[in-house]
Specification:
alpha+beta, OB fold (Dihydrolipoamide Acetyltransferase, E2P), 6 helices
Length: 413
Amino acid sequence: MTEADAKDELTPAADRAERGENFAQMLDAEGAPPAPTTKEVAVGDEVSGVIVKVEDENSFVEYGSRDEAIIRTSELKGPDGEMRYKVGDPIRAFVVATGDEILLSCGLSRQDVQADLLYQAYKAGLPVEGRVDAINKGGLGVAIEGDVRGFCPISHIDTQYVKNAEEYRGQTLTFKIIEFRHQGRVIVLSRRAVLEAEQGKAAGLVRSQLKKGAQLAGKVMRLESFGAFVDLGSGVEGLVHVSEISRRRIGHPQEVLEVGQQVQVEVLRTKDLGHRRKERIALSIKVLEKDPWQAIKEQFAVGTVVSGKVDGLEDFGAFVELAEGVRGLVHVSEIADRRISHPREVLSLGDEVKVVVLEVDIRRQRLRLSISQVDALESKAHLAEFRQRQQEQGADQGNSAMLEALRRAKLTD
């Protein structure tokens, strides 16, 4: 019997409350001594009392509390339908419900009382503990509340598929009751529901940290051609787009990342947090890397001749990598001294080439390079170096001649 079933058959609580209030007022008027302290009882307790009133559907029992308890009149009758109790008779019964009214039953077994407690846990969504004492291919047999048994399907053991349920044998675990049928003879349990609820709370804490610019640790879960999915904790995943993985150009995330790798990420933006299907979390790894362009202007000043590797060929020119994460464009018109229609006519991917830096654009992170001007620039540099050496040598020779003249004049040693 459930609390809801019992209440459907009871005298309205308002009528009894009114009778109790009038009786209390009468006692106060006559100066009666204060009423005894209310006896606190809980579901499952066995109490002793005296029948004080019998009605068609419900009867009332005085059990030492300020209020009377209620018991179904049908429980006071024998198999032949005749009353076995009358007003004034003592009675022992179990408490099956508390609250506004105390409900009793003398026909319940201990298992029935336990089942009633579990029914209340089921209705309230409260977790219960149970010990796994049986295993079969369908799931776990669980002993809960002593004599009451439940069953946890294998799909409800964990948030992930369980291949071997035997490892749970003998463990005391926390479950949520997801089905309660036939007065507790069929109880279906779910440990997964408890874990998901706990995970949901933890995920809420993670999402509370996801502000633009926030930096978090994460774990790479999946790699796709367009980016990497990173677990930020408690099942909250964000996406690092392929363009946000590294400052150097990469074709696929697997070139620099692997599943299971721990990474530091920064939150770029979020959308619909908490809505599983609509939730979007954009992350970046490269923004936390040292920006090589901060030293570009000094390292690759305009007019500098440097070596690099061809790592891209397009109709409009060739991309040359000068250092890790630093690449510049050689326009098709700056590749050769002659006119060409495509860089492939003179260059191949991986070629080592010399280039001269024509322009450095830090704001747009662009380098404009030239291959065709290298020879002319180096020739000028060689000519300038040659002239410098000549000047230095001429000065040295002039100094030597003057020193020799001074020696002849015996003006110096």
